[in-house]
Amino acid sequence: MHISQVLWQFLIKWLTNSALFPREASTIAPYADALYFFLLTITVIGLVLVGTLIFGFSIRYRKEKHPVAEQIEGSTLLEATWTIIPLCLFLITFVWGAILYFRIYTPPANAMNIYVVGKQWMWKAEHPGGQHEINALHVPTGRPIQLTMISQDVFHSFSIPDFRVKREVIPGRYSTVWFQATTPGTYHIFCTQYCGTNHSAMIGEVTVMNPEDYQKWTQESTSGMSLAQNGERLFASMGCNACHNGSATARGPNLAGVYGSKLTLTNGSQALVDDAYLRDAILNPSEHITSGYAPIMPTYQGQISEDGLIDLVEFIKTLQSNYRVQETLTTADSNQQAPTTPGAVKP
Amino acid sequence: MSATSSTILNLPDQRTATLPKRHYLNNEDGLLSWLFTGDHKRIAILYLISITIFFFIGGAFAGLIRLELLTPQPDLVASDTYNKLFSMHGIIMVFLFLVPSVPATLGNFLMPIMLGTKDLAFPKINLLSWYLYWVGGLFIMAALVLGGVDTGWTFTTPLSTHYLNTHVVTAALGIFIAGFSSIFTGLNFIVTIHRMRAPGMTWFRMPLFVWSHYAASILMVLGTPVLAITLVLVALERTIGIGVFDPTKGGDPLLFQHLFWFYSHPAVYIMILPGMGVISEVVSTFARKRVFGYTAVAFSSVAIALFGFFVWAHHMFIMGVSNYSALVFSLLTMLVAVPSAIKIFNWAFTLQKGSITFETPMLYAFGFMGLFTIGGMTGVFLGALGMDIHLTETYFIVAHFHFVMVGGMLMAFLSGVHFWWPKMTGRMYPESLSKLAAVTTFIGFNLTFLPQFVLGYLGMPRRYHAYPPEFQVLNVLSTAGATVLGVGYVLPLLYLAWSLKYGPIAGNNPWQATGLEWQIQSPPLTENFIEIPVMDHEAYDYEWLAKKMEQEVTTVG
Ligand code: HEM
Ligand SMILES: [Cu+2]
């Protein structure tokens, strides 16, 4: 290991133990801390410089020592110096900060998705395998985790200080954040956006486990129904399959394989089908008419909870062929329980 | 420090000295003569009393907040009470103290005198603005008395519009009305500066205090209406549900954030720029030197004001603004930090080759420079995109803006009040006590807010009423600091009140300063000048002053 890395580790250990510094528990944390120390350094240098100038001049040119002031107009050279040097430092900070930002907010393609719904005053996490947790989140080490988050009421903000990540959770739209945990343990989840009476009680705990423990946890805490399966039931019970039944004469577009594709809408625009698009198409269908179809879909605004929407979206995501829809159609008619969804991944 | 050798205090002989027979304070008697006055100086005094009242109300809330945070448990007050406390603290401090502080008091008092004119352009509108301030203030107090409001000073929707049963509309209305008082003050300043300067008072002979108020006035006039519109929308959304901010009606909750910060970011410059003006005057006077790079300081004020309008989205980096707009706003934020850095160095170099004394206003000004440097630099942390993700919405933010607003602005305000007190009242305050207050404030301030930076990096969220126990040590430090700070704020209240009756007579120019305001009697006549002065020298021309004083000595002798 390079000597600077050893020193770095030493510094971090010491700071963490002195409780002046949060633990570094994600792959991003060391990058954030490096920028933090850079900024701390230039702040201290700036402060020492200003302090030295003030104290130095004050001592050297105090009235007893220097009874008559010499008038000085200014100095273009000096002014240029203290314009250009801060400017350069701030520009370096800008670039560094921007790189970090893109790193924190650009999830890798292989990230495992977990949904989080914020409500007054709790965090509800939903794993694809159907595990639900309140004010808790279990994640494995060594695997990028993406959180797709939405608020059911007011602004909240999801923050895990020991991971150095945070993102606003907004009513009416999905936001995402990702991290990769490095060290097993438990860490605080805070709501950092003021959200009403029990804002300070909206605290959770993220439990980082090594992959084997995590495997065990998922098996023990499954409810038996994955999100997609819940979605499948909703799809039937809300009557979606009456129109989206995949047949040639259906009144609604075929949903198989629609996730991730580009749709042409009646107004001629192109739309990429992602979580946010699907959610919005369910709530505000009249704004997203696929070309070739009539604007007859009713809005489901106020009829499906955010959790339900997540389930529906997960179901639609798993649809690769019309087979599931057909199955749903028959089970819905015959009132039987749907069999396990093929292709619905368990984490 | 031996007061006798270091002081430039130039007081008249106390055995014979008296206040001038006639001045603006005793020109007319009776409460009504104050309530219907058109005199900018009397209006300034009315404002000074008013904002002091609100400052101590807001301060009492701060004390309760800190007391609650002494322990991690939610033990002193219930959570909704706590939320009301910090909301009221913020609303009062921002809208009823910080925004009007320097402009409405010192600015009102000094602007016409510094420009060599008898009054502001619109004396009646000036008085009206004070009444509007109080109407707004009373609405806010009404919201408080009727049961409070728990939106935070930021009024975030949809929390404020759909989820709270408190007196949001009343408080918003109060801020809306008080906003007009700020617009009127700004208008009055702009027109006065453009139209009423004395003969010879060119733009580049104006004191920097006037320049900084000019910049702040632009912000008041252009920014405040946006706040007013935003609050009207909040009230409409709450009462009749128009839905502009409501996603279920096709509205956009982020729109509120954009509108709110479009005002509230420039607002921090409304708060800090006038303070910077004070610092320029004070540093120049006690170093007995022209401000280093006068033009750069003047233009950097205007630059800050203009750029200040283009950085609002840096309050929203984690709110799902697009990555590319985040880039642009971060870059602009870095650029706006530069003029502030320039000013700090200009003030520091004003000291070079000066003849420096350390009177109370100067101590406060030094405090300002130190604290504002920290406040400014920590702003750079928050402007750096990736760093902001971790720091925003934590105690780091609380520490940062208190360093700028309280460490910066309030230090500047106190510096200015001490500096111009002899002019406003004709009397001096006790010197050693005032120095003690300045030092106490500085120490108390650092003890209160430095630990909060650490708390913020550790991740303690702001607006938390109870917190995990590992944060306690730093919170205890902070509360201890707040106690010291409280003492630092109460002291001036006491000795300044004392000085009104018992303070030594100050004379016209106790600091031997160059400004026009120091060339007239203290306290001034109602019409300021017997004859409109002709400005035949630059601001901060100490050679001119020396010559003038020599002449006075020879004519008297
Ligand atoms: C003894 C002095 C003070 C102390 C101990 C103090 C303490 C605090 C604390 C603890 C908060 C954070 C509340 C929270 O986030 O939970 C706060 C917020 C705030 N303070 Fe102070 N404060 C002091 C003085 C001032 C002054 C003098 C001003 C303005 C002139 C001011 C302006 C504000 C503002 C604008 C907020 C934001 C309120 C919000 O979060 O909505 N404070 N203060
Ligand atoms: Cu919350």
Automatic annotation (TrEMBL), chain A:
Cytochrome oxidase subunit II copper A binding domain: residues covered: 109-220
GO MF term list: copper ion binding; cytochrome-c oxidase activity; heme binding; oxidoreductase activity
Top-rank taxon: Bacteria
Membrane topology: Multi-pass membrane protein
Domain Cytochrome oxidase subunit II transmembrane region profile: 11-108
UniProt cross-references to InterPro entries, sorted A to Z: CcO_II, CcO_II-like_C, Copper_CuA, Cupredoxin, Cyt_c-like_dom, Cyt_c-like_dom_sf, Cyt_c_oxidase_su2, Cyt_c_oxidase_su2_TM_dom
The protein's required cofactors: Cu cation
Keyword Electron transport set for record: yes
Cofactor note: Binds a copper A center.
Catalytic activity: 4 Fe(II)-[cytochrome c] + O2 + 8 H(+)(in) = 4 Fe(III)-[cytochrome c] + 2 H2O + 4 H(+)(out)
Compartments where found: Cell membrane; Membrane
Record key words, sorted: Copper, Electron transport, Heme, Iron, Membrane, Metal-binding, Respiratory chain, Translocase, Transmembrane, Transmembrane helix, Transport
Broad class of where this protein is predominantly found: membrane
TM regions (residue ranges): 34-59, 80-102
E.C. code: 7.1.1.9
Annotated ranges, domain Cytochrome c: 226-320
Claim: ATP-binding is one of the keywords in the record: no
Any single biological process term in GO: ATP synthesis coupled electron transport
Xref: CDD domains: CuRO_HCO_II_like_2
Pfam families attached to this UniProt entry: COX2, COX2_TM, Cytochrome_CBB3
GO cellular component: plasma membrane
Function: Subunits I and II form the functional core of the enzyme complex. Electrons originating in cytochrome c are transferred via heme a and Cu(A) to the binuclear center formed by heme a3 and Cu(B).
Family, per entry: Belongs to the cytochrome c oxidase subunit 2 family.
Protein name stated in the entry: Cytochrome c oxidase subunit 2
Lineage: Bacteria, Pseudomonadati, Acidobacteriota, Terriglobia, Terriglobales
TrEMBL record, chain B:
Primary localization class, coarse: membrane
Transmembrane domains' residue ranges: 44-65, 85-110, 131-149, 169-193, 214-236, 256-279, 291-312, 324-342, 363-385, 397-421, 433-454, 474-498
Top-rank lineage group of the source organism: Bacteria
PROSITE patterns the UniProt entry points to: COX1, COX1_CUB
An annotated GO BP: respiratory electron transport chain
Membrane topology: Multi-pass membrane protein
Pfam families listed in its UniProt record: COX1
Name under which the protein is recorded: Cytochrome c oxidase subunit 1
Record organism: Edaphobacter acidisoli
